[in-house]
């Protein structure tokens, strides 16, 4: 299936692929021992699962991937191995090498929906690949290669000249939905894609990164918000997908963080997140795509640090003091907070 001509024209100007970036943990970039202790005390179960405290205490592949990445950045191999052991034994239950997306402590069996979530698969692969190289662990590298191969085999869809990341292997492709294909650009973990390109040099990871950037530019033109919807239909031109809130919200707020952590400073991509994402007080806006109006505001420091980091990267504006120290709140903003801080320490210390 090919996208109609209008979408191809919208996406005609391609973006350069992100260069390989060294992601070795160092004292300049690492999550501190104290920060990781605070994080794991609140979100890491002794069995090795990351608990989503705002979502009925479930665990999901996204959280396991974030846990691997943060414990790697903290240099804590013991906690990394616990998280990977739980992920491997409890969530890698599909027959295609990908992770089931949700593990629920309140249900038996704990996994009732075996569909995957591609952002979780990317994050897990990324964490394994980084740790495997840094800690000289060929077992981790081999697992990363295996998941990357499974994702390339069943998690992507080529549409016209675009390589798309399906949010899940089932339910989002052109053949699955009337408005399909449907994508979620926050599932593109841009910082992970050069790492996967090193793992699988013959894989489509550079094309996937390029497609994501092109789609981001196009998706910002879907309404008055000048920001991307969380869920996007690509049946014709990019548009908010059916059956999802037509808003820029909790998903899409992490897109600029992934871009920045990938080393991207393209003003075309980033500036809307500095100017349109926060309100005058720096709170993050959940935005109606059609009207551009604010639906509600997110005041957690883990959300507010993202547009602040964008402004830092683009203009050198300092990040407010209240966002420069970490205190855990809920799982998701706390995770984003640590990822933003760890990047700023190494690459933009002048902003802290």
UniProtKB/TrEMBL annotation:
Q: Name one GO molecular function term.
A: cellulase activity
Q: Which UniProt keywords apply?
A: Carbohydrate metabolism, Cellulose degradation, Glycosidase, Hydrolase, Polysaccharide degradation, Signal
Q: Which residues form a coiled coil?
A: none
User: Does the entry feature the keyword Hydrolase, yes or no?
Assistant: yes
Q: Give the range the annotation lists for the signal sequence.
A: 1-27
Database matches in Pfam families: Glyco_hydro_8 (PF01270)
Q: Could you state one GO biological process linked to this protein?
A: cellulose catabolic process
The EC category is hydrolase
Reactions mediated catalytically: Endohydrolysis of (1->4)-beta-D-glucosidic linkages in cellulose, lichenin and cereal beta-D-glucans
Q: What is its EC number?
A: 3.2.1.4
Can you tell me which family this protein belongs to? Belongs to the glycosyl hydrolase 8 (cellulase D) family.
Q: What is this protein called?
A: cellulase
């Amino acid at each position: 299936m090919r996208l109609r001509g209008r979408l191809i024209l919208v996406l005609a100007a391609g973006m350069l692929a992100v260069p390989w970036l060294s992601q070795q943990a160092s004292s300049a970039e690492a999550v501190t021992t104290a920060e990781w202790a605070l994080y794991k005390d609140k979100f890491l179960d002794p069995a090795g699962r990351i608990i989503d405290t705002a979502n009925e205490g479930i665990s999901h592949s996204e959280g396991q991937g974030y846990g691997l990445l943060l414990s790697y950045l903290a240099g804590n191999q013991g906690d990394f191995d616990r998280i990977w052991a739980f992920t491997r034994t409890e969530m890698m239950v599909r027959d295609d090498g990908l992770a089931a997306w949700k593990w629920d402590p309140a249900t038996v069996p704990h996994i009732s929906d075996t569909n995957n979530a591609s952002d979780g698969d990317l994050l897990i692969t990324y964490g394994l690949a980084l740790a495997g190289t840094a800690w000289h662990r060929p077992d981790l590298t081999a697992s990363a290669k295996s998941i990357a191969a499974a994702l390339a085999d069943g998690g992507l869809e080529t549409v016209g000249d675009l390589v798309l990341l399906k949010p899940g292997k089932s339910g989002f492709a052109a053949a699955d939905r009337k408005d399909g294909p449907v994508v979620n650009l926050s599932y593109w973990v841009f910082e992970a894609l050069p790492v996967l390109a090193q793992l699988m040099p013959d894989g489509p990871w550079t094309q996937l990164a390029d497609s994501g950037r092109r789609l981001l530019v196009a998706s910002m033109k879907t309404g008055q918000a000048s920001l991307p919807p969380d869920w996007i239909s690509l049946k014709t031109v990019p548009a908010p997908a059916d059956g999802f809130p037509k808003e820029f919200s909790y998903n899409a707020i992490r897109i600029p963080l992934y871009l920045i952590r990938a080393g991207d400073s393209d003003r075309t991509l980033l500036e809307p997140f500095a100017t349109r994402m926060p309100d005058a007080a720096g709170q993050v806006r959940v935005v109606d795509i059609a009207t551009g109006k604010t639906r509600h505001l997110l005041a957690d420091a883990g959300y507010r640090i993202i547009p602040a980091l964008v402004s830092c990267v683009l203009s050198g504006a300092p990040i407010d003091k209240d966002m420069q120290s970490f205190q855990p709140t809920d799982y998701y903003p706390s995770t984003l907070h640590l990822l933003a801080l760890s990047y700023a320490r190494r690459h933009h210390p002048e902003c802290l």
